[in-house]
Each structure stands twice: as C-alpha cells, then as structure tokens.
Amino acid sequence: MLISNPRAIHFAYPDTLRTILNVESADQSRVWLSGWELISQQATPLWELTEAASQLGIARLCVKDESFRSPLGSFKALGAPIALMRLVMRLWHAHDIEPQALIEGRYAEMLANLTVISATDGNHGKALAAAAQSIGCHCVIVLHANVSAEREQAIAAYGARIVRIAGNYDESVAHAATLAKNNGWHVVSDTSYDGYEAIPRDVMQGYGTIAAEIIEQSTDAPAFTHVFLQGGVGGLAAGVASYLWERGGAQRPRFIVVEPRQADCLYQSAIAGHAARATGSVDSVMAGLACGETSPLAWKILEQCIDDFMLIDDDDAVDAMRHLAKGAGDDAPLVAGESGAAGFAGLCALMRNDEFARAAGLDRNARVLVINTEGATAPAAYAQFVGESAQAVAARQQAWKQSCVR
Ligand SMILES: Cc1ncc(COP(=O)(O)O)c(C=O)c1O
C-alpha cells in the first residue's frame, strides 16, 4: 500500500518541466483570480496541529485548509476559472481582454454564444459552472452515475445545464468530448488526453496559489520535510508539488501521493512507469479522488517528483474526517470533506505501520504538511459520516479561535 518511486529526483526543477508548469505563470494566475468575488481575499489558514503531531510521533503537523478558499467549498475554485479566463483570451486574442473585467462579466455580450463543457465528480464542475456564470457564457456539466444528487444540485445552482450518464467518471469524460465535438462547444477539463493539454495545464497552474501561500505562511519555521497530496487524476499534486519544487530546488520536501485503494491510477502509473489506469472499481466515498485514469500531462511532473505513492481505504478517510472534526486536545476542530481528509488519512495510515513509516522517513524529526482540499461539499454525507453537521463543527472552530484570543 506504499511504494517508493525510483524515478523521483532531488535536483533543481528541470527546464523541461518548467515549459509545462512554472512559478511565473502560477503567480500570474493568482493575481488574475484574486479579483473574483468567489475567491477568498485572504490566504487560506495554515493550522498547526500540535496535539495530533505528538500523538502521531512527528515533530510538526500543519494543515493547509482549502475549505476556506471559496464558497464553492474546495481548492478547485483555483483551477477551472483561470483555465476559462485563459481560454477566452486565446479565442478572442485580438481583443486585448482585461482579466479583472472578464471575471466581473463585463465581456458577457461578446461571450453570449460561448458554451463550455466538462465532466466532473463534483468540485471541478461546480467551479466551472460558477466561473461561466460570472463571465457570462453557457456551461454544460456531464455527471456520471455515482455523483450524488446533493452534488448535482450544488452545480445546477450556478446555472449549468446537467447531463447525467449511466457510466463512470472516465465515460463521462469521453461523453463530454463527444458533445463538445458535435455542438462546437469547448471542453474545460481538469484532465488531459491525447491532443488536449493547454486547458488542463492552465487548471493545474491555478493550484500553484496554494503552494505560494504555504511558502509565505511558513517563512519563520524550518521547511516541511514531507508533503502529503491527494491524487485524483494528478492535477492537484502536480500543481502544488511543481511550485514547491521550483522554489525549493534540490532541498524540496518529500512528496507522498494518497489515493483510494479502488481508484489507484497514479499508484499504477508508478508501477508501470507511464500514465496508467486504475485497477479497482473506481467508486469511493472520496468522490473527488474517484478517477480511473491518470492525466498524462500531470504524470510528466509527478513521475519525477513524487517520492512515494500510497493507497487508503474509505474507512481511513471517514476516520480522518471525524478526527479532524473533533480536534485532538487543544487542536482546532476542522471541517474536512471525504477527499479533503485523505492526505491526513494517509499520514495516519503510515504512522500506524512501523515499516511504512520508516520507509517514508517519517519519524520524530518529520515536519509534515497535509492539505485539506475541501470542506463539507456534500453536507448531508458529511453529517452522516461525522455524526455532526459541518455548521456545528465550524461553530466549535469559532469558539476555539475565541478561546485562543482570550
Ligand atoms: C476535494 C478534492 N481533493 C483532491 C482532488 C484531486 O485532484 P486531481 O483530480 O487534480 O488530482 C479533487 C478532484 O476533484 C477534489 O475534488
């Protein structure tokens, strides 16, 4: 359930990868998106979980909390909107489009005949629907059979037309591509495929904001030794790891990718040595990570920088949600959704097994960062898993904050 990647290197960020993802373009995306009303104007919190670190037997544990990124509920608010903006700029390149005016909807008349489409397991589609609504174009979202009605409603609330198919996530990706071809629509997908790379690259590049903030928020402390990253198609991991690698160079942290056991496409890619498919059913409570096929573009980054790939069970994720919601000892209670809690779940799973912990170099000196990639994006499912509503946990978090001020 943990394998090390023999292709991972600890040199300076290679120029070949800089042509795909780089700090300069990530920072530009950050500036462009900062004017969007659905993005928080402040950096998302970097929580220090002292008690959890001590219970796990490591020196330090921090959680970068993307549940605060946007009312959309996840880090995905950084990806689709910037890719949509860059798409419009490419399509109307003669117009010298002003990014702030674009996201405020001041080009809506010009965009009235533009339709964008994507498959999604929830968060990406919601972010694309919201961005399309903001700039004033049409949006069609293709959902596979296992996307819950709760997630569907959340996407439809942003004005997207929903197309529901009977198949799985990968089939929904293929269906979106066919609909786009037949109707002259534009696919804005977070995963790449043959001949389709510009947009998923822009999506991944948007996620670099998370890494930029992490660096700004941790200048006073010794750098992290380990960073846990959830894996769906690989975009989040590529966007965050590439930024931290380019900035950290040969001193970059050790990156560990965590996936659901049934949706192990990145783990299988590490074994095969190329972008590969998952071996399991792909269905998981970790809806955002339930992806059967690796994004080949993301893999170009991941194959050189992810040191370890690991798998967790659905129960591990649910336990992690509860643990974070409770808040050990004096630690803050955190609202982490099913996929959001997966990085922390991966850390806990490794620390329960001496052999794996040793293999990953996790000991009393380890300074670990995990990313809570979503809040309660499916609130009813959250309440059922945690035994408490997300609002109640958030209220306890508020009380915790006030007790710290006193
Ligand atoms: C909450 C959450 N975390 C992590 C991921 C994984 O991101 P990626 O598919 O880019 O690897 C997703 C993907 O949808 C997600 O929704």
From TrEMBL:
Signal peptide: none annotated. GO terms for molecular function: diaminopropionate ammonia-lyase activity; pyridoxal phosphate binding. The keyword Chaperone does not apply. Residues 43-373 form the Tryptophan synthase beta chain-like PALP domain. It holds the Pfam family PALP. PANTHER family: DIAMINOPROPIONATE AMMONIA-LYASE (PTHR42937:SF1), PTHR42937. SUPFAM superfamilies: Tryptophan synthase beta subunit-like PLP-dependent enzymes. The keyword Lyase applies. InterPro entries: DiNH2opropionate_NH3_lyase (IPR010081), TrpB-like_PALP (IPR001926), TrpB-like_PALP_sf (IPR036052). It is an enzyme of class 4 (lyase). Keywords: Lyase, Pyridoxal phosphate. Its cofactor is pyridoxal 5'-phosphate. Its EC number is 4.3.1.15. This is Diaminopropionate ammonia-lyase.
